[in-house]
## 1
Amino acid sequence: MPELTGQILAAVGICFTAATLAMIGRVIARKMTKVAWWYEDYFCIVSYVSVIAYNSVVIYWASDWYLGKTIPSTVTAEAKAHILEMSRKLSFAGSHSYGISLGFSKLTVLSLYWRIFKHSAIRIPIIIMMTISAAWICLRIFMITFRCWPVAAYWDKNIPGGACKIPDSAVFFGTVLPHFVMDIVILILPVVEVFKLRLRMGQKFGVAALFVLGAIVCIASVFVLYYSLVADLNSDQLPRDYYSYNFLWGAVESNIAVVSSCLPLLRPLFRLIAGSNAMASYSGQPFSYGTHGHELTAMSRSKREKEPDATSSTHQLADEESIPDSSDLDPNVARNPDRIHTTIKGQSAGSGWSSHTKQDRSIHVRNDVIVEVRNVDQGNQAVDRQK
């Protein structure tokens, strides 16, 4: 098997740089939008700290304990046994930080989903996936820790009575396979809701980048699973033959997972770099659309009229008693009394509400839609009065 120390260090360096830049960008974006930190931000910090621990283990292992390298034949048997023992210790530490980092990356993304889609059809699947992710973290930590008894029997094979009841292949297969399936589900969970949106070209690239990064994490999971099953755990070149590919792809997976969980929050930075028009999700100008049977007109809505819940969409139908006086009708009603008129109240560029939210660049559903139904007969009466 070829030596992989250089590739391992390169993978850690490149991917960790990307993760660090994404984390810094996330903090800057939060300050730009002046949005209070939420659960997803704290989950992301835990994931990032864990990936730092994982990268530190890999770098130390590759630099001093032959990760990805062939142990020279000139090394004495005692020194070689010590190298193998240290490799198992570092694997034990790296496996814990790897699992914690990936688990909290999942919780970060799912918390973001919940904040955006908690009133949509995928709210129940989000809750289910958050529960499964939390359970997966606990299960993996338990299996990694107690696969051997006593625990130190995993790296010290000379402990009297020590035994490993669960082989490494079973541990990795039992935890990495569910982790891969969960990544696929989390990746496709918001697809239907996202494709319902009308996005500009810049936003389409952003969504595509998010799914590409998620796909990279899934592909890396496949490689980790594959090499966990086919590598030789009994090799006398354990750091090269068994651990090298696992920790190489583990570094790619865990670091890119942090980048993927930060990417949706970097929109204010992208707007600053690419310009607001490329990333804008809506226009602040009034809009109007008319058909033979329906007519839509836009009206500004003041900040005072905003409902307390800024994330909800409210649809109100006026009953017969709430129909306004004919003198308040839009002039279009008098000119076209045979049409059904639907008035939509939305934001305009000059409204107080628009200026209030201009500083907030995070993802929120801000606009309420109010449908007012006006009786056509009232419109006819208005025409008669004018005559």
## 2
Amino acid sequence: MIILGLTGGIATGKTSASEYFKSQGIPIVDADLIARLVVEPDKPAYYHILKHFGHLNILESNNRYIDRKRLGEIIFTNEQMRKQLNKCTHGYIRREALKQLLKYFFQLKSIVIWDVPLLFEVGLNRYLSHTLVISCDQTIQLDRLKKRDDINDNQQALQRINAQMSLNEKCQRARYVIDNSGTKDVLHKQLKDFLLNIQPNQLNTITWFIILCIPMSFMYGILRFLDFVDTIKYRHKR
């Protein structure tokens, strides 16, 4: 099974690429969705966050869910709290991503997309042999961002772009790069050709499944057990 790390810059078309892959029946492990999933009530990370931030009234008033906007405001100007929140969540995000990847391994999927906006920033590329950056011309990127987020000021849009790792650096680190400076149809054609080029041999997929089935099953069981232990631990420490 090929795990393809997918990333890009803000407004370069990563989401469009992810949607195309999904339309082709390729499973997506979405880091942003996982980040929301792991902080739902009764999840281990949920209790971990309450342990460190619960005294700051971070729960929504009408339910037990964490008020993400309120928590974001708290950590925005506090580097120490931001680092603490990352400690509370990053391990669980990676654990959940690994569980989803293992699930698709057991389903004999030949390709899985791991959609990670900060793929290189958090160092996940070190564990992946296949990484793809969706790039585009900066002028086009600027225009798309202003239109998407209803921004009138060029400087404000540039600040958002420059707040991330530069596209040039991401492209240098990636194994594959697709330029999305054209239309969506052009992007889809490039992605279609790309998939044809990296599609693994089905026999190899089955062979590796037979070899790795037992150790991967053991790993999945350990991850589920760790989730259970952490849930009990943090639930009783509240």
## 3
Amino acid sequence: MLRILLTGLALSVPLAVSAQTPAEGVPTERPIAKPVKDAAKPAENAPVEGAATDAAKSAEPAPAPAPAAAPAPTPQPAPAEQPAAAPAQQPAPPAEAAAAAPAAKEKPPSYLPNLFDVTVVETWDTLNVRESPDGQGKVVATLPATAKGIQLVARDGTGKWGKVNVGEVSGWVALRFLKQQPGIWQPAALPQSLSCTGTEPFWGLKPGKSGMVFSEPDQPDRQLELRKVMDRGLEGEPTRGLIAGDAKGRVTAFIRPDQCSDGMSDRDFALAVSVIIDGQDQPSRMLSGCCSIGR
């Protein structure tokens, strides 16, 4: 029985093999290979090549991991531009506020000579006139507390002391006790208290009721018509030129700020003058002298 089974088995095996072998010359249809999705992935539970080597390497200390690269920042949409808010108005500093304010009219400089009144002195007291411009200087004269129209002819370097004439002498007073009279020097005009004099020969020139009066020793006073008064166009500045005359001729005078002395007294003057006299019936002459506005 066993022999029969073995014989049948031997006969059936070649038949099966021949059935699977394609006939010669007949094209064999090849099965379409399906793509392997995870070809790169090793099969699960597959032995890893070089496992022994990796195991050996695992015994060595692992190198420090390289710092991970920072992820690129994700671009954000730009925020919509908002209108800039107007800055809150702050109060201007005092200096800026003063600059923004309209400039006040600048006070003109105080020219000399000018007239002053004694002030800030008790009525029973007097103002000392000193030989030098300091509080220790010798007192050479005094001014009453009610004195007015005091002519100031000079200032010291500190601007705290002024020189005045009292009688036939000059001296220094503290300016904090004096107050300037306004409007002494008006445009194209002469102060009514103006008086100009000269020596060798003696002469005099001053304003009169209707013009100017020119005087000389042993001669009648000449009443002159004041034809023109000129100034430099500076407010309060005392430089003056004048033209006067009568039937005999013309008198021209040029008055300018300058320290002047009459040569006969100890008084000081702050105005110098040059006078030209000419006419048909007299020779032309030029005179010089000093002027004062003190009353």
